[in-house]
Amino acid sequence: IPVLLVRYSLPAIAGMLVQALYNITDRVFVGRSVGIDGISALTANFPIMLVLMAFGMLFGIGGSAAFSIYLGEKNIEKAEKVIAGTLFMLITAILTLSVIGQIFAVRILSLFGSSRQILDLSLDYLRIILAGAVINSFAHAMNNFIRAQGSPGTAMIAMIAGGLANILLDYVFIFIFGMGVKGAAIATVISQALSAVIVFSYLFGKKSYIKIHSGNLIPEIAIAKRILSIGSAPFTMQLAASLTNGLLNNQLQRYGGDAALSIMGMIFSFMT
Description:
Layout: H1 2-33, H2 36-72, H3 76-103, H4 105-111, H5 119-131, H6 133-148, H7 152-176, H8 180-203, H9 221-271
Helix pairs in contact: 1-2, 1-7, 1-8, 1-9, 2-3, 2-5, 2-6, 2-9, 3-5, 3-6, 4-5, 5-8, 6-7, 6-8, 7-8
């Protein structure tokens, strides 16, 4: 068991550390090119990112845990239904959130601390991120199923590849093309797409011994309940973090302005 803990935890830690670089590098490059307003715009978007992550955890953690239980029971049929059903519920939920986010973007950003001065920058970032939200969520949530099948190294590679690509693309789009906050968002979506390709190629390729069948996409009620019940705890915690973060942003903006918001944004980056 100790050997298994090391084998599975170290790649996960390494992958998550690289993923944390998404936030840090975005703020580093945006801060040096756009300045305080740019960092403030990214910080105003952070609670929304946490909401997207919450739904990714709901289905990714809930689905992979149920998936692992069925694998342990040697019930391949149920495991196949779980992974397909998780994929369907994840895409449906994220698409719905993306549409709602695009429609109410201005109100949401204003609620989460975006001032009039940085609203345009915040919108530039949010609209691009929401456009690629399904790709991002697929990469993060379905990555759990790679680890659950006994391939933590592949799961780590998918996360690291996206993180390193984001660093390179941030430099290209922000400094070479001078795209500022838009460049940071585009770099993030493209790098996440790279991670998604790796995840997709594994789950739908020969390495995965659990296959995703179109007939299993609509989940059975019992399986859906099991996925949601297991994933509800991390989902609720992440949602609470988003709410707390949004309230904090709002008060920072009210009493300290964009400068206070940008400072807290930098702190959040290192906290991850």
